[in-house]
Amino acid sequence: MVNVRKYFLQKYMTRVMVDQYLAKQFYNAEYSGVEINRSPIGTRVIIYAGRPAMIIGKGGRTIKQLAQILEKHYQIENPQITVTNVEKPELDARVMAFRLAITLEKGYHFRRAAFITVRKIMNAGALGTEVVISGKLSSERARYEKLKEGTVYKSGQSLDYMVDRAIAIATLKPGIFGVEVVITKPLNPIDKMSLNEDVNMNEEGGESPAPSQGAITVTNVSFIDNEGGNKNDETKTGGGES
Fold first, then answer.
1. Fewest C-beta in 10 Å: which of 1, 105, 110, 185?
2. DSSP per-residue string spanning 51-99
3. What's the CA gap between 238 and 215, in Å, rounded?
4. Do 181 and 129 contact (CB within 8 A), yes or no?
5. Mind listing the pLDDT tens digit for each residue in 73-131?
């Protein structure tokens, strides 16, 4: 009998190892992620990248070599590889982290590169972003610089599905620079509350809130004036008498 726990752990570990290998080999192609789905005729491998042409290679040479590596070293049976674009690369933390690392390796100043990255992420519609660059930035002593804009969640349930985080490494002459990008995607938090008030025009031309569904309507209300007299007033707000 197959050990279910061992089977799923092995399946997950295979995906993690393939993901680490692809991130190391194709970070210049702005690699984003991979999906591995088993089918009766083989294993379908979907690779997401900002530059798919660099993974496919000239005449499909690179992708053929990649299929052989996945089958030989990672025991993936008959891999059918598909390379596709990332839908919104500016909202993908891994793509933006690799882009920033490549920019630093090209010789751009770290602060200017970080500002450009933050601006691109926010212009794409993100609720917030945080970019951290660490290393020997301006002297022999290592330090870090952080740029933050908008709302960035650090804890809570919103962190699981709204926040995307990625780390990349840039190799420069002073040493290795670490890059961290955190993006808050344009989604509504679970605990977000909003009050919607529908306003209708009353007979006198003023504004009065419309009754909501399930509201309680009060009729035959009596008002007592200061002199002790009673003044009856019947009001109906469209819900019928109760």
1. 1
2. -HHHHH-GGGHHHHHHHHHHHHHS--SSEEEEEEE-S-GGG-HHHHHHH
3. 10
4. yes
5. 988 888 999 999 998 999 999 999 999 999 999 999 999 999 999 999 999 999 999 99
> What would the pLDDT profile of 106-115 be if each residue is shown by its tens digit?
999 999 999 9
Residue 146: enclosing H or E segment and its boundaries?
strand 143-150
Output the pTM of the full model. Answer: 0.73
Strand order through the sheet with 163-171: 143-150, 128-135, 176-184, 163-171
Q: Write the DSSP string, 166-234.
A: EEEEEE-SS-EEEEEEEEE-S---TT-------EEE-TTS-EEEPPPTT-----SEEEE-TTS-EEEE-
What is the rounded CA–CA span in Å between residue 81 and residue 84?
10
Number of other CB atoms surrounding residue 238 within 10 Å: 9
Structure tokens at 162: 């709204």
Q: What is the Rg, in whole angstroms, of the alpha carbon atoms belonging to the chain?
A: 29
Q: What number of CA atoms fall less than 13 Å from residue 233's CA on the CB side?
A: 7
